[in-house]
Amino acid sequence: MELLKERILKDGLVKPGNVLKVDSFLNHQMDIDLINEIGKEFRRRFPSDKITKILTIEASGIGIACIAAQYFNVPVVFAKKSQSINLDGDIYSTKVESFTHKKVYDVILSKKFLDSNDHVLVIDDFLANGCALMGLIDLIHKAGATIEGAGIVIEKGFQQGGDMIREKGIHLESLAIIKSMTDTSLEFE
Amino acid sequence: MELLKERILKDGLVKPGNVLKVDSFLNHQMDIDLINEIGKEFRRRFPSDKITKILTIEASGIGIACIAAQYFNVPVVFAKKSQSINLDGDIYSTKVESFTHKKVYDVILSKKFLDSNDHVLVIDDFLANGCALMGLIDLIHKAGATIEGAGIVIEKGFQQGGDMIREKGIHLESLAIIKSMTDTSLEFE
């Protein structure tokens, strides 16, 4: 998606440890016009009328999923990163290792909001080592629901997550795939 | 807002400890059509053209803020609940006590995304004791920005947060204010 790639080149910052900061438009401050274009592009790439739910994970996936959901006319469900007293005991849970925070956390989803009738599109901002996405896929499997695909805004193509997901036969669409990045250059696939 | 009140009466659940669960449409599963109506209503109640940013706090405020932002044509900035290695050291921070999780956490915001030129509308899903909203107001003060108002989806009118905010002279609009709730009844103001 050219508009997105141009924006990453213009406003993205590469930090030590293979960290790409896009916090001025995607995951701290959010450019809603850009995210609307991202939502439309996800719809173009996943035209199926079977999709019943969009699943994402808190926090930065939520805004993107909500804007995108307007083009799919389905509800958003977001998985939560730790037990809350506001959630029933009746939950699916999985463990996810965070690349950013260097720790393992529990990811939970109320059983009420995903079942075997659901056809699920996963949406998230980043795909790197694939841990968050694998966790969401595990939750979908536990619910007996069908995965229609995964839509990612930015994939770090030099990490293994994308290959891992594609090898499972999952329809993965990443709107920008980064081939390599250093302090002074950033190349897309 | 009648549509919202009807939905709370239909799908909200009161749990022990004055917890109102609206997780089937607002803060775990999200009904995007309803949230679009909520966004339009916030715009109707805050018609000012001075607003430059919508500020919210992760996680459940983000989706509501992003959908609402489409009616304001401004970016969303969301405050984060703990230090992340993806954030610069150059941050505003404040402490917030969580009613739901019974703990105090740090809330942070990159200085890049809020300054003295900004006129800020705060949006969040709940207002109860007011701790989260007071934290966001503190961040706005630290940035030297102007508070244009606060838009809340559900206010627990029997807790002190709403009065505390109104006494500060802040333009507070809550789309549903709960006067009282028990296992068997829920009344709005």
Structure description:
Chains A, B: Pathway: Purine metabolism; XMP biosynthesis via salvage pathway; XMP from xanthine: step 1/1. Chains A, B: This is Xanthine phosphoribosyltransferase. Chains A, B: Keywords: Cytoplasm, Glycosyltransferase, Purine salvage, Transferase. Chains A, B: Its main location: cytoplasm. Chains A, B: Belongs to the purine/pyrimidine phosphoribosyltransferase family. Xpt subfamily. Two copies of one chain form a homodimer. By secondary structure, chain A is an alpha/beta fold. The first copy, chain A, has one domain: Rossmann fold. Chain A is built from five helices and eleven strands, in the order H-E-E-E-H-E-H-E-E-E-E-H-E-H-E-E. In chain A, the strands form three sheets. A six-stranded mixed β-sheet of chain A has the order 5-4-8-9-10-11, with helices on both faces. Chain A has a two-stranded antiparallel sheet with strand order 1-2. In chain A, strand 9, helix 5 and strand 10 form a beta-alpha-beta unit. In chain A, helix 2 crosses helix 3. The longest helix of chain A is centred in the N-terminal third of the chain and has 14 residues. The first copy, chain A, is globular, with a radius of gyration of 16 Å. The model of chain A has no long low-confidence stretch (mean pLDDT 94). Chains A and B meet through strand 3, helix 2, helix 3 and strand 5 of A and strand 3, helix 2, helix 3 and strand 5 of B. Strand 3 of chain A pairs antiparallel with strand 5 of chain B.
